[in-house]
Write a structure and sequence with these properties.
By secondary structure, this protein is an alpha/beta fold. It has twelve helices and twelve strands. It folds into two domains: 126 residues, Aspartate Aminotransferase, domain 1, CATH 3.90.1150; 239 residues, Type I PLP-dependent aspartate aminotransferase-like (Major domain) (Aspartate Aminotransferase, domain 2, 3-Layer(aba) Sandwich), CATH 3.40.640. A seven-stranded mixed sheet has the order 2-8-7-6-5-3-4, sandwiched between helices. The longest helix has 19 residues.
């Protein structure tokens, strides 16, 4: 007898593909009777121009959730977008050679910053408090006349806290620096940071396909290409685009915009119910300044690695999926001041549009049951 699929509570690692996104992709995969739906959007013949038009529609749809005065550059995902921004913008900021970012940033930002430090750039890694938030006065002191770029995540991927990106952008601009925002977890869920100069996003976090993301660049901001070749994407990102992936991204963005209030209310309903179901657990990060589809909890003395092994009927996480195979403790939870034992006793539950209250209740029962059995 086949086992039922696990209850999915890992929305921060990826989200289920929206039916609207799948439907938008099919014509460009040759699955709806189109003989040329798979055409190269960079070709000059009629089929190529039709594909290019679909890409531009998707670009407009994705951009509708971002500040207006800028351009959307499609990439393979947010990691590429963040690398493009961090490495591509610095050449235009010389002689400024310092980057300011947060200790709780995603590895795509942290590791790129560490690489840039080895290339001779200065790096300030700002601490966060026990609530996961940066102190603005500390940021003010760190951002100076030699700062080229400030990088800050909108919604943290592990603990869900919302950083004061607007205030950080103001500090950056006062010093003559630029602000890069990793908005992967916030795009389509919370308001985009109007004051940012560069914004990185990803399709598969908003019920779109994997393999495509984007970097939004404010008009007037110069950036050097990370990938050289045919000069596609306004000369900033060479390589053949997939009309199917672009169309899926655009459709997912359109649905996210239309459902933003409804999705937020549903996430808050699930959050409130989860707090009742996990009574006695501690919340990691601010319970107020956050996106409510992310719940990071700990239970003292719990071995989460064992819990994950024991619970095959629930898909959840001990932290970032990007770093789950590294063997390293979560740098985000460590940045909150949690001990290694506390980090090892923490779980991340992610839920959203397609999660039902019944699923959450059944998952909570299984998790609590396994945790109690482990500690009993």
């Amino acid at each position: 007898m086949a086992m039922p699929p696990p209850i999915y509570l890992d929305y921060q690692s990826t989200t289920p593909l929206a039916p609207e996104a799948r439907a938008a992709m099919l014509p460009w995969l040759g699955e709806t009777g189109s003989a040329t739906g798979w055409a190269n959007p960079h070709s000059s013949h009629a089929a190529g121009r039709k594909a290019a038009a679909a890409v531009e529609v998707a670009r407009s749809q994705v951009g509708a959730l971002l500040p207006g005065a800028g351009r959307v550059i499609f990439t393979s995902g947010a990691t590429e977008a963040l690398n493009m921004a961090l490495r591509g913008v610095l050449a235009g900021q010389l002689p400024r050679r310092r980057i300011v970012t947060l200790a709780s940033e995603h590895a795509a930002v942290r590791d790129t910053c560490f690489w840039l430090e080895k290339q001779g750039y200065g790096l300030d890694l700002l601490p966060v408090g026990t609530d996961g938030l940066v102190d603005l006065e500390t940021a003010r002191k760190a951002i100076g006349s030699d700062t080229a770029l400030v990088a800050a995540m909108l919604v943290n991927n592990e603990i869900g806290v919302i950083q004061p990106v607007g205030a950080l952008a103001a500090l950056a601009h006062q010093a003559g620096a630029l602000l890069l925002c990793d908005a992967v977890q916030g795009y389509g869920r919370v308001a985009s940071p109007e004051a940012a100069d560069l914004i990185a996003i990803s399709a598969h976090k908003i019920h779109g396909p994997k393999g495509i993301g984007a970097l939004w660049v404010r008009d007037g901001v110069d950036i050097e290409p990370l990938i050289h070749g045919g000069g596609q994407e306004m000369g900033l990102r060479s390589g053949t685009l997939s009309p199917a992936l672009c169309a899926g991204f655009g459709a997912a963005a359109t649905v996210a915009k239309a459902r933003q209030a409804q999705d937020a209310a549903h996430a808050r309903q699930l959050w409130d119910r989860a707090l009742q179901l996990f009574d006695g657990w501690s919340i990691n990060g601010s319970a107020e300044h956050r996106y409510y589809g992310n719940l990071n909890l700990r239970r003292d003395g719990l071995d989460v690695a064992r819990l994950l092994s024991d619970l095959r009927g629930v898909a959840f996480s001990a932290g970032s999926a990007c770093a789950s195979g590294s063997g390293r403790p979560s740098h985000v939870l460590s940045a909150l001041g949690l001990s290694p034992e506390m980090v090892r006793s923490s779980v991340r539950l992610g839920f959203g549009r397609y999660t039902t209250v019944d699923e959450l209740e059944r998952a909570a029962h299984l998790i609590n049951q396994a945790a109690t059995a482990q500690q009993g």
